[in-house]
Amino acid sequence: QVHLVESGGGLVQAGGSLRLSCLASGRTFSSYGMGWFRQAPGKEREFVARISSSGAITSYADSVKGRFTISRDNAKNTVYLQMNGLKPEDTAVYYCAARHITTTIFGSWGQGTQVTVSS
Q1: Helix (H, G, I), strand (E, B) or coil at 31
Q2: Phi and psi at residue 10, in whole multiples of 5°?
């Protein structure tokens, strides 16, 4: 497993942008697919975006497609989530997660970072 620490959350007005970062420990970061998930108050955690271990393949939830971009820098053990055109409904705690290439399960999770979008 890897240890994950998110940063970059905060308060932003609707239409604004934020970039989340997730720093992973260990020397095998390139062996993990990475994902971002979020959980709004009173709702279940939901998938936001994911990226393959090499960074070549990405996928997004329909609700963020065209507004959010996931990327990674394997030399820096970091995955990013660039969020543009933020909406109040994007308000949530955002979690970074890691999935080893030998599994289909995201087994390592960060502590989360709060994103609040005001209208």
Answers
A1: helix
A2: 165, -165
Give the C-alpha separation, 27 to 77, whole Å. Answer: 8
The mean pLDDT of 4-31, rounded to a whole number, is 95
pLDDT at residue 81 in the model: 98
d(CA 99, CA 105): 6
Nearest CA to 37 out of 29, 45, 27, 26 is that of 45
Question: DSSP H helical segments within 21-95, as ranges?
Answer: none
Which residue shows structure tokens 């997660």? 97
Residue 39: per-residue pLDDT: 98
pLDDT at residue 27 greater than cutoff 90: no
Closest CA to 19 of 76, 58, 72: 72
Contact 71, 80 (CB under 8 A): yes
